[in-house]
Model the fold of this input.
Amino acid sequence: MEKIWNGAKLITTEFEQYFDCKSNAWGRNWDIHAQHLDLKPWKGLPVFVKDFEIDKPENATVIFAALGCIDVYINGKKIDNDELKPGFITFEKRTMYQTYDVTDLLQSGKNRMLAVLAGGWFSGRIVGEIYGGKQPAFIACLTNNGESVITTDDSWKADVCGQIRTADIWDGEFRDGRLDDYAVMSKTDFDVAKWENAEFFNDFNGEITPFIGPAIRVRDGLSLTAKTFTKYNGVNYNGTYFGEINVCDKPSKLPVSIKKGEKLIIDLEQEMVGWAKITVKGAEGTTVKMRYAEFLNDTGDLARGNDGPKGSLYTINYRSALSKAYYVLSGKGEETYRPTFTFFGYRFIEISADEDIELIDFISEVVGSDNKEIGKIETSDELINKLISNTRWGQRSNYLSVPTDCPQRDERLGWTGDAQAFSVTAAYNADVRGFFHKWMQDMRDSQTEEGAFPDVAPKVSCCQSFNACAWSDAGIIIPYNLYKIYNDVDLLCEHYDAMEKYIAQLIKINGMSGAEPRYGDWLAYDWCDNRFISSAYFVRMLDMMTEISEVLGKADRAEYYKATRKEAHKYFEDNFMVDGKLKSNTQCEKVISLAFNLISGDYATETADALVEQIKENGNRLSTGFLGTYNLCPTLSKYGKDNMAYTLLMQRNEPSWLYSIDQGATTIWERWNSYTKSTGFGDVGMNSFNHYAYGAIVEWMYRFMAGIEAAEPGFKSILLQPRVDTRTDAELPDGQQRMQWVKAEYDSVSGLIKSAWSNEDGFVYECTVPEGICATLKLPKFTDKVIINDVEHSFDEYETDGNCAVIQLSAGEYTMEEV
Done:
C-alpha cells in the first residue's frame, strides 16, 4: 500500500463547519419551522493546490482518497465525471482510493493540481459527531510514466475559499458565482502566494483500500425536463389556514422571466434524486434560490397536514433537512449552475430570486450509483406498468453509494431491513453485484468486535443499534440472495467469517431465540409478535448458513448449522406453536411460516388455504408490513395461489400497491397512505414519498408472473414458470380485470432471458433461452395440443406438474401456441 502512495500523507487545513455536530442530528429534537429558514453562506470549503513541472506527459495517473467528498482539478479542468467521491463509508475503518488517467490534462512545463473538499459523509450533519466533527482531509499521489511527481505533504498550499460557501448532504449548497471557481484556481496563473501551508492529518487510523462498487454519477439518459411551470406572487385567502398561492402565469416553455417577489414552481411529474441544472441571467449579486419538494400543499388546510398555501411546496416531511440550493449571480451574461456536494429527493422545484432574473434553460439530472439496468417488465395493465416504473425510480433514487431508506429528509441512511427485503427485486432490475459488495464491506466495517451487525450501515452517530432481527440479518440474507441470482461465490467467501461471528454472538446472547425483536413486521396493519419474527428469521438464517457452508466446501460447518437449525426450530415450535399449529393468526405469521418452511405437509397446505380466506375476509387486502409483504405473493405462488396474488397485486383499496398510485405516487412510499386525497398528509415524523421497500412485489412479477427463475445459482439452468391470471368472472373483485399479457426480459450473468405470454385470443407463450443454458418450462395447459416453432405436439408427450406440461428446452427462441 505504501508503495503506491510514494510517501504521501493525509493533509488538511483548519476548517469549521457552519453547524454544531452535536446538535440537530436525525432522531433528536428539530424545529418544525426549519424548512422556512434560509441556507446561509459560510466561509467556503477547504481547497488545496500544488504546482509542479514535468518534461513530457506520459502515462500519467492520479491516485487519491478523502475523508469527506472530493473533486480534483488539473490545469483548469475537473479530472473525472464521478460525483460525491468516495461515497458513504464507515470512515473509522477505511476510506477508498480512486485512480484516474490524467495524461491529457498535463502539459510540458508548469502544471497545477487542485483538490476541493466538503464534509460529505465524514463531517456533515448526516453523520453527527461519530467522527468528532473533524475537518475533511485527503491523500494523493501523481505519477508520470511510473515516476512519482507530487505527493500530498505540508508543502501544499491551502485555504478555505472558493465559490461553494456552504455544502451539506442534508441541507444543500450555497454557491457564489462572483468568486473564482475551482477550474480557474487550478490554473498556474492564479495567485495562491498568500495561502497557508497544509497541515498533516493524524487522526485517521483506518485503511485506505481500492474503490469498489459503481461510481456515483449523473445517470446517462435519465435526466428529466420540466412538464409544467406555475408562477405565483403572494397568497390569496380561500377559507383555509394558509390560503392558496396567487397564480400569475403558467408559462408553456422556456425562457421564463421571474421578477422579484415571484416564485416559479416546476413539476417534473416524476419523483427522482439528483439536482436541478439551470441556466439563468440577471444582475450581479442576485441570489437565485431553489427549493425542493416531493409534494405540493393540496388545500392550505392545516388539519390536512398542509404546511403552506395550496399549490406551494410541501416540505415539512423533510424535517430538519433544509434541502436548498442557492446561487449568487456574477452578472456575466448567461450562467449555468448545478450543485456539487449534495443531492436532493424531489418532484417539484421552486425557483425565486431577490432581483429579477430570466430562467433560460432547465434540466433535472438524475444522480446515483451507476448500476446497469438489466431487467424490464411490461404488462397489459397500465396501473401495473406504473407500479413497475415507480419501483424502478425508487431504486434509482435510493441506490446512491448505499441502499438508503429514503433520499430526501434528514435521514438517507443505509437501513438494512429495507435493503434485504428489496434485494432480489434490485438484482432483477439492475446489476447490483458491485454495489452490494461495497455495502457488505460497509456491514463488516460497522460490525462490532463481538460480531453484531448494525441496523444501519455505514454507522452514524444517531443510529448505533445492532442485532435487530431481519435488519441486521441482512448481513447474511443479501450475500445469500446475490449468490442465488449471480452465482456470486466471491462475496460468500469474503463475507463468511463475518456471518459466522454474527450467528455465534447471537447464540451466545440469546440462545435459540434469534436476533433482537426490535422492529418486527414494520408498519404492518395487523400486529405480529416481534419475538415470532425473530425466531422465524433465525431459523431461516441457519438454513442459509447451512447452504452457504456447503457451497464453500465447509462440510463440518454445514453439519453444525443443520444441527443448530433443529434446535432453533424446536424453540420456534415450543414458543409459537401448540398441538402442531400456530398460536396466532395474523397474515404475517402464516406468510413467514410458509415462506421459511417452518411448517410442512398437510398443515402447510391448510395454512396456505387459510391465508387466502383471511385475505378475502379482509376485503382482498393485505395487512402485512415490510417483512410480511415482500414474502406474501411469492409464498402464495409457492402454494399455487397465483390468483390471490393477482388479486392483491391489482387491489386499489388501502392498503395496496395501486392505492398509493391512485393518490398520486410516482415512486414507492414509506406508508401505503403517506398521502390520501380524502384526508391529506400523514405524520410528518416519518413520511417519505420515496421509500422502495414495498416495491419488492416486482420480485414476484419477475419470478412468477413472467416466470423467470434461476433453477441453479446464476441462471446456469433456468426455470420458466409463467403464472397466468386465470381468475374467473366470479373470482374477480369489483373493479378488477384479468391480466391479459406480460412481457419480460432479464440479462442474467448467463445471458439474456426472455419470457412473454398472452391470453387475449388463445394462449401464446414466447421465450428465449441463452446459449449454453438449458431451461425447464412449466407451461400452463389450456388445451390438448401446442404448436412449438410451427411443429404441433400433444401435451401427452410431456410430463406434467399439476396443470402444467414440463418441457425441457435447449438454447434458442421459442413461440408456443396452444390449439
The chain has a mean pLDDT of 96. Residues 489-510 form the longest helix (22 residues). DSSP finds 16 helices and 45 strands in the chain. The radius of gyration is 28 Å.
